[in-house]
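Memo to structure team: turn this sequence into structure tokens by end of day. - J.P.
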Amino acid sequence: MVSTQSAQAPYARVKQYLKDGLADGTWPAGAQMPSEAELMARFGLSRMTVNRALKELQAQGLVERSQGVGTFAARLHRVSSTLTLRDLHEEIVERGHTHHAVVHRQRTEKAAAALAAQLGLGVGARVFHTLIVHHENGVPLQCEDRYVNPACSPHYLEADFTRTTPTQVLFETTALWRAQYTIEAGAPTPEEARLLGITLREPCLVVTRATFTRTATITLARLVYPGSRYQLQGIFQP
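Reply from structure team:
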């Protein structure tokens, strides 16, 4: 029988080890945690894999990272209420279901004024654009319309998004510092309704998400879920 630990993705083992240590008080708030080099040696993994685990913990507000200094357990007031930035592929697989993606757009475009302002770029600047529909067990679950700042992820468009996801690529290739969300009930656009196989009157959960480095906007994404197919859940743990 395959153990639960061995069945986990390599980065997930690192992440769970650190989360367990935070939960049991091994690293109290403000304490310095193991370095990337220490985690690489302990788990026998690459720096990229270890860095992904640390980035996800940082995105969840569980750790604080300072370049050249280290990783520290976040103080309680920073983690009392968080919205987890997760990859949809992992959510679907955790439910024991099958994920596949259909790529409808993957190209370079010129940024119009509104988009340029949101990404902190000049009007007409080059941006990367992907439009992907994620399916769960063959049913369209999410329409992901995403713009990426090329300066933050120069090779973004080279990824095969039928085998990986934009979230995975950006976690692994960018210096993620913070994320910003808006969540609302809304109607799909005609294109979104067509791609999701729903009517224009179907209520949807619409998530607009931006992520940032310390100095730049990485990406701006509009994520649309049919309300009848998706439920947003969260956990509060002070």
